[in-house]
Amino acid sequence: MAGSADRQILNVSVAPYFSSQWLTPRLMRFTMRHPEIDVRLHHSYHPADHRRERIDIGVNWGEGRWPGVDKIKLVDGSLTPIISPTLLARLGAETLSPERIAAHRLFYEFDITHWFEWFRQEGVAPRRLDAQRLSDSHALRRAVLDGHGIGLFFSSLIGEDTEGANLVRLSEKSVHTGYDYYLNYSSDIELPHKAKLFKRFVLEEAGI
């Protein structure tokens, strides 16, 4: 193990939910592979201003239209309906039709139009929805896990929850938000070697 005086600090800007659900569970593998690098996470949805901030590389959320930034799409920002097995059992069903979903309490994070678009794809046109906005991914996931309703959530970030039977995906259809998670770094400043190693690791983990 490299001594603390020999370790290189790698400052990474990362969106909070992506950090907790995707990056942090994988980070130990990077640390084991590169013990000489001390990764420091700085939570932010938006890419850093690399000219002003000491951020080497980031994984952030957005449209990807960032001047002076090179980016690689890492995780898709599409949303799909999810429910807890407990609530599904209370409703006496193994799955729910779009009509039954429309009649239930719904949660969304970004815009209620995403729910209407999903119903449109399913051939259903509800006139109104009992939908509540929870403008935080952690809060929305928690509300669904606790059985308070059905959430429209990231289809690319629910794998562990569905495989572990914590959540049930109700449809193969999804709605894109217009935003995605991007690995990003300055296009004007050469990427340091420690950041190149991190970039390679993240792309490998994402299967890119």
Provide the descriptors you would attach to this structure in a database record.
208 residues, alpha/beta, D-Maltodextrin-Binding Protein, domain 2, 2 domains, six-stranded mixed sheet, five-stranded mixed sheet, 26% strand, elongated
> What best-fitting shape do the alpha-carbon axes yield?
elongated
CATH class group of the largest domain? Alpha Beta
Largest sheet: 6 strands, mixed
Helical proportion, percent range: 25-40%
Distance between the termini: 29 Å
CATH superfamily caption of the largest domain: Periplasmic binding protein-like II
Classification by helices and strands = alpha/beta
**Proportion of β residues?**
25-35%
Q: Count up the helices.
A: 7
Low-pLDDT regions:
none
Kindly give the count of domains: 2
If you average the pLDDT, what whole number results?
92
Number of strands: 11
> What is the H/E string?
EHEEEEHHEHEHEHEEEH
> Using only CA atoms, what is the Rg?
19 Å
CATH architecture of the largest domain: 3-Layer(aba) Sandwich
CATH domain fold name of the largest domain: D-Maltodextrin-Binding Protein, domain 2
